[in-house]
Amino acid sequence: MSNYILRRLITGVFLVFVVTVLVFSMLHLMPGDPIDLLVDRKVPPERRQALKVEFGLDRPLPEQYWKWIKNIVTKMDFGISLRNRQPVWEMMKMRIPISLKLCGWTLLMEILIAVPLGLFCAYKKDTFFDRFTVNITLLLTAIPGFWISVLLIIVFGVKLKWFPLSGYETGKYFILPIASGVIGSVAGTIRLTKSEVLDVFREKYVLTAYAKGLSERTVMIKHVLRNALILVTVLVFMSIPWLISGAVITERIFAIPGMGSLMINSIIQQDYAVVQGCVLVISLLTVLSNIISDIVIGLLDPRIRVSISGGER
């Protein structure tokens, strides 16, 4: 198992390197000159060249990349925003906790709702409850996320006036954004959980447990639910980066100053340094979540431990 973890860590380091190269290269290959965003085109070439020197844009791309990576690793310095003339990390540092709060509560509510419903749908397969829940999940899957957000604002914010329309001052401001995220993602989690539980039901060890005379409760908790938690673990770790990146629409609609809104504003303004920082943080979260997910699954599933260690327990 230790060799497997070491291999996953080495692979993760390599993926991080590839991600940094891709993020840096793609943004520098985009059309347009960043200096055009700062000054008018009538500005003398001498002044434009001075700005390029100030932001390090006059250096070769490999040198720019090395300096960028070195500053991130040693100083947590992601560069300077071309628009605001502020350190990129200072701009992200204020917004990351807001996005994590929004995504964390959304993920928690999604798991608390979807896993029990998926388990019960598998247990009551082909009953009215199962068919009704599946049809509802299909309907929710077809509804765009932004439409759900707008509908919640109209109903609970404008008509009923139960919740504020935008902001992030107190927990009450997060209820509608969290509800929007949960409604938009809970359908897929219910269906995945149901599918995984049905697969577990077909395993021989479940039939053996019933044959031994174990109670329904014991089989469901010790055998079915325990093995279904492997999928839940995957969902938790894999949902973290996608929730953060997918919160762009939610943060924009509800005027929440998180990472998503910062990234989309920076893309519109072609603020390269900020876009690089945001994409890099989200990409690193994705790689880290993959590594942790693989390691945790290997610890939870004995079959994976045997296959990767040649029988090591």
Structure description:
The protein has 313 residues and is mainly alpha-helical. Helix 4 (88-123) runs parallel beside helix 11 (272-300). The protein is built from twelve helices and no strands. The N and C termini lie close together (8 Å). The mean pLDDT is 77.
Write the layout of secondary structure elements.
Elements (H helix, E strand, L loop, with lengths): L1 H27 L16 H11 L5 H15 L12 H36 L4 H15 L2 H15 L15 H27 L2 H8 L4 H38 L5 H11 L2 H29 L1 H8 L4
Q: Which stretches are poorly predicted, pLDDT < 50 over at least 5 residues?
A: none
* Major sheet summary line: none
CA(first)-CA(last) distance: 8 Å
Question: Count of DSSP E strands?
Answer: 0
- Approximately how much helix is present in the residues? over 70%
Brief summary of the model shown:
By secondary structure, the protein is mostly helical.
Identify the notable features of this structure and list them briefly.
313 residues; 12 helices; flat
